[in-house]
Amino acid sequence: MHRRQLLKAGGALAAATALPACAGTTRTAALPPAPGQTVWTFDRLEGVGGHATTVEGAPSLIDTPLGKAVKFDGVDDALFVDNHPLAGAERFTFEAIFRPDGGAFEQRWFHLQEADEISVAQGQPPGTRFLFEIRVEGQEWWLDAFIKGPGYNQVLIFPEKRHLVGQWFHVAQTYDGTTYRSYVDGALQGEAAVTFKPQGAGRASVGCRINRVNYFNGAVREARFTSEALNPDRFARP
Questions:
Q1: 62, 110, 123, 186: which has the highest count of C-beta atoms within 10 A?
Q2: Distance between CA atoms of 85 and 185, rounded to whole angstroms?
Q3: pLDDT tens, 64-107?
């Protein structure tokens, strides 16, 4: 079954209306890391998070109100990081601070994958993964959060919850042992019951899907990975 059909079949529940996009216009530095939290700061093009990083295309470092960030052109810019920071987690919070700048309708911009050598060799995405994606229409975007693995295949996408491009946003996806949720600037976008199983070791791509499609036009400042489901008041929102 196509994963968009799974959304209907699974009964993912839409929830609170997102905060206005204008909330992203004034930002300061994010909160310090919580104990046990892994932080990737995109103030460099090599050694992201202390891991081997492969640069493709010509992503660039830019100055922003939040500090340095990596800018992707939506054509062929990407970073590939030799680490899956949520491998082994039974519960999780996956956060990112990013700025979408418009462009193509479908952009898969942050991909965590369990190692799958056969899929990789064939140029296909692996079966077990996390994804942050966006959909873009004109000057608006909306979030697509997705997880897939043994016994689960869940998308959270709500086109009615739109935000303006060209501004900084915090996005998050969490799992508390029963329920998978997605957020934009701390506002719940939607949720669904999921029987999640921990993922194995692997790697990540930023700026495109792991198989080099659906490139991202915009910038990424930071990502945080926590082996528990944080409440929104604990998110690293700038």
A1: 110
A2: 22
A3: 999 999 999 999 999 999 999 999 999 999 999 999 999 999 99
Cβ-contact 151, 195 below 8 angstroms: yes
Which residues lie below 8 Å from residue 174, measured CB to CB, with a gap of 6+? 91, 92, 93, 94, 180, 181, 183, 229, 230
Left, alpha or beta for 7 (phi > 0: left; psi -120 to 50: alpha)? Answer: alpha
Domain 3-16+38-231: top CATH class: mainly beta
Q: Which of 128, 130, 164, 160 is nearest to 146 (CA)?
A: 130
Q: What are the structural domain ranges in the chain?
A: 3-16+38-231
| CB neighbourhood size of 117 (10 A) | 8
Structure token pair of residue 15: 């929830």
61 pLDDT band, cuts 50/70/90, is very high
Residue whose token pair is 């009615």: 160
For range 27-51, the mean pLDDT: 86
User: Which pLDDT does position 116 carry in this prediction?
Assistant: 74
Rounded mean pLDDT of the chain? 88
